[in-house]
Design goal:
heterodimer; A: mainly alpha; MetI-like fold; 11 helices; 1% strand; flat; B: mainly alpha; 2 domains; 12 helices
């Protein structure tokens, strides 16, 4: 390195007009990203200010913006957390199946099949959830309340339509499965070959090899993949809007008729008919959602970026 | 259970203390059979009304896992038993994930077939109440809005990726990389709200226009294009660039004539996949493009229907003769899925056809 630095005169590359125009336009496009994101934040804030500043009595519900948005924020986080609790173990299992259990030749087609789940538009998930899943799970919910009703989460009376937050969480889990699976699979495949072979050579069974070589190596990847999945579940709109039968309440029970609504679904349901201050209130709640997802995603990115080996966006 | 520990005359040291090869499938078949019979008896005894096939298979699988674990624990010891249990659980996880996929595809195809007719592709919903009508207005809207979104985000995305890979050094590049990551995480509905908040400044409150939808979609699409293009540009070997410089070719011509053609296949694939990703977005279009029953080609004025919003709208606001609305919703969903699958297929074909010839 030092030898290079000592060269007497650095030859300056000739600047042609084409070079200048081209590099300037790439810089312009790159800066546009900054501008767009700044614009997203600024315009949302600008449109939210009336809702923050308004007289509490004028906001829907009559108790001010924060008590309007609090149950929605609760529903958003609660639904996403249940979805995550369902999706993460499943995704790890699927990722392990594809990376370490399935025959080598089948691995990539099977991965493609799981990726197909990501290709289905969310509104179709919504239709499927309300048309197929919700009626199908009602008997199971009945059984749950009858036998495990003492457990607060499963307390009755059970919803007759199945349009509960648990159904929503199951659909959300299906929707975030592919992203968590894809990332975990990628990191599992990066496990150093020698670690795995060393474990096997010491007489470990396949499961022991996975437990002592693959999972510890992949833990940061699993964590960040889960956070990215959480970010997606938080922002998911249409499936929730179609399936859930909502109410403005804070409640942990999973199977009842009244369920806490989510921010995104509430916007989708109320925006077409909103006007004036109502629109501002909805935009302000969207700003809250933006902040929540931003925090979650930033944490995920921070963990991802500590291991530069893969990026979550593809 | 202690049979195997007894002295066997021809004990093979390699297979001793192991379950025979077909044991797994044997136990699986046996457990399913047992539970199928149990549920048959339950039904004949009048405990359950219909034959509960799902319950039989699920409980049969549980029985299989427990039995195999117990048998393996007795014969092979705890370590191999755990290994078998892990295999079962991992395989079950995979099968479990396939159930929604299969069920969803099956449902959409069976329900969607009802209205999958020429009328669906040639009529709008203008003046249609009850049966009949179609989604041509929604299909046109989807195509127009998505093309507009692609026309905005592909140049910006590609140029940004070129900046990041070929030019970007220092603070700005770092900031852009970070912000592209942030942008991938923007919830789609927030993108819709942004488009609304932007256009409401220039026009009257309650604005709805197709172009706003295109803006919202490009907010979602740009980061995807940047990421995929960036990955592809990074794959171009540096030797190619250096060879070009050595021949005296300017940097921008090197990028345009050497780097981009080499990575063209990957970039096109990425763009197609990005389009497939945003074409199913409902929430932002619901906010800013609105819904209407008529064909509208004009991006800059009035509401514009799109296919995902059509599906949502038909299902949510069912009029009289609800079944006609539900049928249209399912057919819309089927068309949407077909479009997405087609785009995915095109992406794969493009990747094949345009791949660099060196291989």
């Amino acid at each position: 390195m030092t030898a290079v630095a000592k060269t007497p005169t650095a030859i300056k590359a000739k600047q042609r007009p084409g070079d200048r125009v081209f590099s300037a336009s790439t810089v312009f496009a790159g800066s546009l990203i900054l501008v767009i994101l700044a614009a997203v934040a600024l315009f949302l804030i600008a449109q939210s200010v009336p809702a923050f500043a308004a007289d509490p009595a004028d906001i829907v519900g009559g108790e001010g913006f924060w008590s309007y948005v609090a149950p929605l924020a609760f529903g958003t986080v609660w639904g996403a957390i249940i979805a995550l609790a369902i999706a993460v173990p499943l995704s790890i299992g699927i990722a392990l199946f594809i990376s370490h259990y399935a025959p080598r030749r089948l691995a990539s087609p099977l991965g493609y099949v799981i990726d197909l789940l990501a290709a289905v538009p969310s509104v179709v998930y919504g239709l499927w959830g309300i048309g197929v899943l919700a009626p199908a799970v009602v008997p199971f919910y009945l059984w749950l309340t009858e036998n495990l009703g003492w457990f607060p989460l499963f307390s009755g009376p059970v919803s007759g339509t199945g349009r509960t937050i648990l159904t929503v969480a199951v659909v959300l889990a299906v929707m975030i499965l592919p992203i968590i699976t894809a990332l975990s699979r990628e990191i599992f495949l990066q496990t150093p070959r020698l670690h795995e072979e060393a474990a096997l050579a010491l007489g470990a069974t396949r499961w022991e090899m996975i437990r002592i070589a693959v999972l510890p190596f992949g833990r940061p990847g699993i964590v960040s993949a889960s956070m990215l999945g959480l970010g997606r579940a938080l922002g998911e709109t249409m499936a929730v809007a179609i399936i859930l039968s909502p109410a403005a309440i804070v409640k942990f029970a999973l199977l009842q008729q009244q369920n806490p609504n989510t921010i995104a679904a509430n916007i989708a349901l109320s925006f077409p008919e909103s006007f004036g201050l109502g629109t501002n209130t909805l935009i302000a709640s969207g700003l809250m959602l933006f902040v929540i997802t931003l925090v979650v995603n930033s944490i995920a990115r921070y963990i991802v970026n500590r291991r530069k080996a893969f990026s979550g966006a593809n | 259970m202690a049979v195997t520990t007894g002295a066997r005359p021809f004990a093979n040291s390699l297979t001793a203390g192991r379950l025979p090869r077909g044991a797994t499938f044997g136990v699986l078949a046996a457990s399913w059979l047992v539970l199928l019979v149990v549920f048959l008896l339950l039904q004949m005894g009048g405990v359950t009304e219909n034959y509960n096939l799902v319950g039989a298979l699920v409980l049969g699988t549980v029985l299989f896992a427990v039995t195999l674990f117990a048998v393996s624990f007795a014969v092979e010891g705890s370590r191999l038993a755990k290994d078998r249990l892990a295999t079962i659980l991992v395989t079950c996880a995979f099968v479990l994930a396939l159930i929604p996929l299969v069920s969803l595809v099956f449902t959409v195809v069976t329900f969607g077939a009802a209205r999958f007719d020429p009328q669906f592709f040639s009529y709008s919903m203008r003046n249609v109440v009850g049966q009949g009508g179609g989604a041509i207005h929604a299909i046109i809207g989807t195509v127009v809005i998505t093309l507009a979104a692609a026309a905005m985000s592909v140049p910006i995305g590609m140029l940004t990726a070129i900046y990041l890979v070929e030019y970007g050094r220092g603070r700005l590049a770092q900031a852009i990389t970070f912000l592209v990551d942030v942008m991938t995480g923007i919830p789609s509905i927030v993108a819709g709200l942004f488009a609304y908040a932007l256009f409401v400044l220039f026009t009257e409150p309650g604005v709805r226009m197709g172009f706003g939808g295109a803006v919202a979609l490009s907010v979602l699409m740009i980061p995807i294009v940047v990421r995929s293009t960036e990955e592809m540009l990074k794959l171009v070997p540096n030797e190619l660039r250096e060879a070009s410089y050595a021949l005296g070719v300017p940097k921008w011509l090197t990028i345009v004539k050497v780097v981009l053609p080499t990575s063209l296949a990957g970039i096109l694939t990425g763009v197609t996949l990005a389009i497939a990703r945003v074409i199913g977005e409902t929430a932002p279009l619901l906010i800013i493009a609105g819904f209407t029953a008529s064909v509208n080609y004009n991006l800059f004025s009035d509401r514009m229907m799109t296919l995902p919003v059509f599906v949502y709208n038909q299902y949510v606001s069912q009029g009289q003769d609800a079944q006609a609305y539900i049928d249209r919703a399912w057919t819309g969903a089927l068309v949407l899925i077909l479009i997405v699958m087609l785009l995915n297929l095109i992406a794969r074909i493009v990747a094949r056809v345009f791949a660099p010839k060196s291989r």
